[in-house]
Amino acid sequence: MRQAAGPVMTRQVGEMLGVDVSVRAKLEPLRGRLMTLVDRGWLRTLPDGRFITRL
């Protein structure tokens, strides 16, 4: 997340982590993990669904 120039989508995070982004079933668990980080206050989600670090 910190390497990104701005807000990122789950698909972009998956590409950076080496997840097969062509399969939606592989992205949903990653989205869940990102939402957990939002709940813990580490990330923030934007209205369009992108994620950004909370600094």
C-alpha-based Rg, rounded:
11 Å
Low-confidence stretches: none
The chain-level mean pLDDT equals 90
What share of residues is helical?
Answer: 40-55%
Number of helices: 2
Strand content: 5-15%
Briefly note the structural class of the backbone: mainly alpha
- Beta-strand segment tally: 2
Order of helices and strands: HHEE
- Profile the largest sheet: 2 strands, antiparallel
Strand order of the largest sheet: 1-2
**Tell me, what's the shape?**
globular
State the distance separating the first and last CA atoms. 12 Å
Please tell me about this protein's structure.
By secondary structure, the protein is mainly alpha-helical. It contains 2 helices and 2 strands, in the order H-H-E-E. The protein has a two-stranded antiparallel sheet with strand order 1-2. The protein is globular and about 30 Å long. The N and C termini lie close together (12 Å). The model has no long low-confidence stretch (mean pLDDT 90).
Quick tags:
45% helix, globular, 55 residues, 2 helices
